Amino acid sequence: MTKNIRTYLALVFALYALSCKKAEFGDGVVLITGTEVTPIVKFAVENTPSEYNVTATTTFRATEDMQVSFALDTAAVAGYNKEHNTIYFAVPTAAIDVTNLETVIKAGSSTSTPVSVKVISTSPLVDGRSYLIPLKIKSVNGGGMNVLESGRTIFLRIARIINFPALSMNNAQGATTGTPGTRGRFNATYLFNPGDAVSLPNFTFEIKNLVYSFRGGDGNSNPQPIQTLMSWSDQSEATSIGLRYGELGNPNNSLQLIGALGSAFAYNFNANQWYTISLAYDGAKLIMYVDGNKVAEKTGSTVMQFSRLTFGQMWGGYDTRQYFNGRIAECRVWSRALTASEIKLNLCGADPNADGLLAYWKLNEGAGHIFYNSSTAGAKYDMDWSKVWWDQAGSGTLLQADKSSYVTWTNDALNKCSQ
């Protein structure tokens, strides 16, 4: 059976090579192990140094020793980005150590000795950037086999395991529903300077969030099943885009898009799991993504005059009845519609200098009550939670409030992200 499988794989590789005019039918080929389906391979890095061994593979056993030389090829990253419309960065050389570039496939074997690739430091890596280590087969001597071009280069994608502080929205560090009237007091609106309002005919709004538990009950319950997450809007909320879990009549672990373009839903969220929600609008349609995967779409026309951000439900009484029982991080406003591939590259963080990144609150301060903007727009988008607004009476009149005492930070095993 094993022999038949190997023969079949050899035939597949040979046919592929023939289609690329790199080998004749039945010829053996050499490729980098792991590139059979995609040249990008995940390299998980939680601590440094972390090591990944790269080898070459032949589709037939070598009849003699084969010398396989490898080399770093940083220019290949730009070529990959151009071909696939991605935004990867070549890893800084100070972050890695690559040894044993001269390898051998012994006669009778089909796998080479390994090239050692180590990430020795993450300090040179910029938060929010996705890095590739591009390694290629430079030459092969002996054995009479050509290199399969689609498998000549491997891109090791550094997947950093990042631990981060996060902001609690239920005024507690633990998973609790609390006593009615005590949760949700964090909820409020922050009004930016009206003179800094930005017209957004295209946009992407993002928030990373984790729900401790989804509530039961009905509209008469206190608290209700509804957990209001947040909204982006203009100063007067004439145009608003928001998110909330557990809309009445729907599963309590469903997420609802509400606001200017109508309603849409995403379903089947798990408790105690982080999700990045992205709302990308291109001027004609809004696509709702969960971790970069499309889950819903709404068509329509709107222009957001962004000048206001609200965490939770800030109407009097509803702040506690519809409080969000969980944590948030990585809140962003973009002036363009991101693609799915761009969103997936930013799940753990975005490059503060990225094109179109208008405002970016990492919400990872870990202490204090000021949420700092990390984008190039600077301090004008900082949010001081001692100077927020809420509608205490539910009458439509905003009152200024100091809610700094309700800011609570979390930093535990739940707060991990693999970039």
From TrEMBL:
Gene3D superfamilies attached to this UniProt entry: 2.60.120.200, hypothetical protein (bacova_03559)
Any one GO biological process: carbohydrate metabolic process
UniProtKB keywords: Signal
GO MF annotation terms: hydrolase activity, hydrolyzing O-glycosyl compounds
Gene source species: Niastella populi
Signal peptide limits: 1-22
Domain BT-3987-like N-terminal: 36-142
Protein name: BT-3987-like N-terminal domain-containing protein
Database matches in Pfam families: BT_3987-like_N, Laminin_G_3
Alphabetized InterPro entries for the sequence: BT_3987-like_N, ConA-like_dom_sf
Keyword Signal belongs to the record: yes
